[in-house]
Amino acid sequence: MRTVDERTPCAREMRRCAATFVTRATARSRLPLDYSVASLRIVDFLIDGLRKGGADRERAQEPLLGLGAYVGEVLVRRAGAVWVDLDPDQCAYFGQRVGVRMPDGRAWNPLGKVHNRFELGGPGESLQTFYLTLHGRARRAVA
User: Fold this and answer.
1) Predicted confidence (pLDDT) per residue in 63-83, tens digit
2) Of residues 58, 31, 39, 60, the one with CA closest to residue 48
3) Is residue 31 part of a domain?
4) In this structure, are residues 98 and 83 in contact, taking their beta carbons and an 8 Å threshold?
5) Which domain holds residue 71?
6) Quick check: is 64 in a domain?
7) Dist. CA 42–CA 31, nearest whole Å
8) Which of 58, 11, 66 is nearest to 42 (CA)?
9) Is there a domain that residue 2 lies in?
10) What's the domain count of the chain?
11) CB 52: neighbour CB atoms within 10 A?
12) pLDDT per residue over 117-140, tens digit each?
């Protein structure tokens, strides 16, 4: 059982959390964070930069939350997902308060995937690959 971080915003706040992250991340650079599937490669790169920069999990907590919100928002906009507050069993399993529900009813944990990339690294934890192999996506992009 994983410990749930009570500081994580609820589902209705995640879109704003993603938008705030994008505003901050692009304020000084021209990162193409446009909620496209291709932009998830940038997310992989940013997480790898945090790892290589020596950030520990506590120092990386805020950027990882923003990156997780961004990944979830890509799922919402491109795969037909919706943000949901997870039930107690899902919270215990995922270690998160929020996730996304896909059109086929499956729940996924984009914040946890971001943490896995940070902690484990490597191509097996790629967020772009996560999207491309994700079950339950809508067949067409959702704006």
Assistant:
1) 999 999 999 999 999 999 999
2) 60
3) yes
4) yes
5) 11-132
6) yes
7) 8
8) 66
9) no
10) 1
11) 9
12) 999 988 889 999 999 998 877 765
